[in-house]
TrEMBL record:
It holds the Pfam family EF-hand_7. It comes from Ixodes ricinus (Common tick). SUPFAM superfamilies: EF-hand (SSF47473). Residues 99-134, 143-178 form the EF-hand domain. Signal peptide: none annotated. One of its GO terms (molecular function) is calcium ion binding. The keyword Cell membrane does not apply. This is Putative response to dna damage stimulus. Keywords: Calcium, Magnesium, Metal-binding, Repeat.
Length: 186
């Protein structure tokens, strides 16, 4: 272990480059960012799973209203902890090189707050609240409901009151800003 374990090997770099949408340079930078969270722990064990509460304080995530959902979605063991590979998967999906379909699939999971595989009215309300949380003035309940009704009218193709992944993807393809909003530059 020790210092020899605190760096990525050539084989790991090669594998990560093949398995992600990240370049070698981005992977090395990602490892440095992960290591910065808890240098002593990562130096002694590259397989360490760090608590998401420690990861979410990174500047890349600290002001993101969906940071808790992003980190939970990418926690492979759903234990509110991230391994370096989980962290790398997250950065890969948020990279500029990730295909829009991959981004939409993960965005759907992030926005599915009750984890039932659909975006229901409660999920949409939570989404709206989080998107508007930075403003001093919160939306009134009627305004939120009107937004939900408009979203469902536009995107709920089978009119069942919920959005499936396919309906969400169909709607997001019409949104020219989606890709730039679901991105993190390294």
């Amino acid at each position: 272990m020790g210092a020899s374990q605190s760096q990525l090997t050539r084989e790991e770099l090669r594998d990560y480059t093949e398995l992600t949408y990240l370049s070698k340079k981005e992977i090395i930078y990602a490892f440095k960012r992960f290591k910065a969270i808890s240098p002593d722990q990562v130096n002694s064990d590259k397989e360490i799973r760090l608590p998401v509460r420690d990861v979410e304080i990174l500047p890349e995530f600290s002001s993101n209203p969906f940071r808790d959902r992003l980190l939970r979605t990418f926690s492979s063991l759903k234990d509110d902890r991230l391994s370096f590979e989980d962290f790398l998967d997250l950065l890969s999906v948020l990279s500029e090189a990730a295909p829009i379909d991959v981004k939409m699939e993960y965005a759907f999971q992030v926005f599915d707050f009750n984890d039932d595989g659909e975006l229901c009215e409660e999920d949409l309300a939570e989404l709206i609240h989080r998107l508007t949380w930075l403003h001093d003035k919160k939306l009134e309940a009627q305004e939120v409901q009107l937004l939900i009704e408009n979203v469902l009218r536009e995107a709920d193709l089978d009119q069942n009151g919920r959005l499936s992944l396919l309906e969400f993807q169909h709607c997001m393809r019409k949104n020219p800003d989606f890709e730039s909003c679901f991105r993190l530059r390294l």
